[in-house]
Amino acid sequence: MRAHMDSTWATIEDLARTTDEAAVRRKYDRRNFVWLVALLIFFTFVSFLEVVSGRRTVFEVLVGTANFALTAFGLFAIFWHRTRHWLRRRIAASSIAFVAIQYGLLLTFNYDEDWIAWATVVPFLMLAFRMPAAELVLTHALLAAGGVVLALLMPPRGDTLPVLISILTINVLALGTELFFSRRMRKQVSSDWSERRLHAREQLRMRDELQYARELQLSMLPECAPALDWLDLCAISIPATEVGGDYYDYFVEDDRVALVCGDVAGHGMASGLVLAGLRSGFTLLRDSLHDPAAVLRRLHDLVTQTSRRRMLVTVSVVLFDRLTRRAIIASAGHPPVILRRADGTVETIDLYAPPLGVRLPVAIPQRTIDVARGDVFVLHSDGIYETRSPAGEDYGLDRLTEVVRMHGGGTAEELRDAILAAVAAFRGGTDAADDVTIVVGRLLE
Q1: Is the pTM of this model over 0.90?
Q2: In the CATH hierarchy, which fold is given to the domain comprising 225-443?
């Protein structure tokens, strides 16, 4: 199996759709194109010698000039970008036409006994071409017919029969050789292409399944933030692969709103499946979110008992209570929540605890703080501060808190976009190595 796709085939869809016959034809054409260029160069030199040779009859000058014009035009068409692609798509027909016309001009120019040498040489120059049997038979039939006609019209000195037999024998031998090697190449290409096409179709199937899983996962995320008159909310989750390991959600119950941000260790299909179960757990326990730590403890049991393979999940929950003017923060191994006060001061709230799914007794820490109008809370995944620059430097929490301090006075959406822009600029155009999730909540009253 080849380690990479031929540059000729632009997409994996091309590989999956291409038949063996089309693949063989493409292989033939690539080889024939190279050999046609070589023949054009060779015959350009030959025709140039014909033009500058000592022959001076008008007929010979015209034929030699026509031959040189043919080869020169062929080279120009091969290398000019506007005709090169057209010729590549019709390389077999172009090759047959060129050989037939070139052969006829050579025999005409050398109408004395020199034509016998070209009638012998040209069929062997066809040996490098690879074509279907019908095209090879047609080409050698034309070559043999041209030699036979000239032998009858311009009989050589001596007996004509040996010359005719030689011309036919040479073309039959050349034809047989080309058929053998063309057939062998066809078998090789068909065998190789069947394996590559099967692999490409499997890749397409997996890609379609991952795309469906991605769409399913994204459909589980909130379509938009709830519109509240006392709390400005905004969030985003950008998976690093088709199926990410990050999750966020909002749960609104009367005058309470819970913000959730979670991250399964790693990313991919397995992470997406675990997060689907985690979201279902939060949905079923939403009535108990007045005590976020208790909900996380129950979700810990869910993660540990529903998978034989150890899966680790970090989660933060921030519960806003409009009536008490307080926020309850609970975390299971998740990156610290960043709080920007209305006066511009910033603090990180880091509650140390193991992630959900560890095979140990778990105590979920919880903290209650007073909040006021203008306070901003930022929940995020580790894909933010673990982003690396092209030089290998981590983005870090300090840069993140500085962005929150500088841009936290605007709307939640403006702060989210400022964080994304700063991280993207720091990454310098390289692909993200991990999922990126941001949840922003700003108190309006």
Answers
A1: no
A2: Phosphatase 2c; domain 1 (3.60.40)
